[in-house]
């Protein structure tokens, strides 16, 4: 599981969706692990981070290996990615 979380952190420049995709890809390649959840969440509220939001976040995951449930998290600093603008950010004027 640490490999998955660190793979996600390595994709932070691509935003929350890239982080989540990288972590899911690594976890999906580990047939001995049953994924309970993997998410990119706000560090204060633990609500899912919306696409396009930049700033601090936490990658959280829980998997089951045999009869053992493993839970882990890694802090990450998300950069802007394609998608909706971050809260409070001004939108560019349309080209005419």
Your description of this structure?
- With 96 residues, the protein is an alpha+beta fold.
- It has one domain: Pantoate--beta-alanine Ligase, Chain: A,domain 2.
- The chain is 23% helix and 32% strand.
- The protein contains 2 helices and 3 strands; from the N terminus they run H-H-E-E-E.
- A 3-stranded antiparallel beta sheet has the order 1-2-3, with helices on one face.
- The longest helix has 13 residues.
- The C terminus is likely disordered.
Termini separation (Å)? 49 Å
Helicity range of the residues? Answer: 10-25%
CATH superfamily: Pantoate-beta-alanine ligase, C-terminal domain
Return the CATH topology: Pantoate--beta-alanine Ligase, Chain: A,domain 2
Number of helices: 2
**Low-pLDDT ranges:** 83-96
Biggest pleated-sheet summary: 3 strands, antiparallel
Reading the helices and strands in chain order gives HHEEE
Provide the number of structural domains.
1
Strand order of the largest sheet: 1-2-3
What Rg do the Cα atoms give? 15 Å
**Average pLDDT reading:** 87
Strand count: 3
**CATH 2nd-level architecture:** 2-Layer Sandwich
Please state the structural category: alpha+beta
CATH class bucket? Alpha Beta
> What spatial form do the alpha-carbon principal axes imply?
globular
In percent, how much strand structure appears in the residues? Answer: 25-35%
């Amino acid at each position: 599981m640490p490999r998955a979380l660190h793979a996600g952190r390595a994709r932070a420049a691509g935003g929350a969706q890239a982080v989540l995709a990288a972590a899911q890809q690594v976890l999906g390649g580990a047939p001995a692990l049953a994924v309970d959840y993997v998410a990119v969440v706000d560090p204060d509220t633990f609500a899912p981070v919306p696409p396009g939001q930049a700033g601090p976040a936490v990658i959280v995951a829980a998997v089951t290996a045999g009869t053992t449930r493993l839970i882990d998290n890694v802090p990450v600093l998300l950069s802007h990615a394609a998608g909706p603008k971050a809260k409070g950010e001004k939108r560019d004027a349309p080209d005419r």
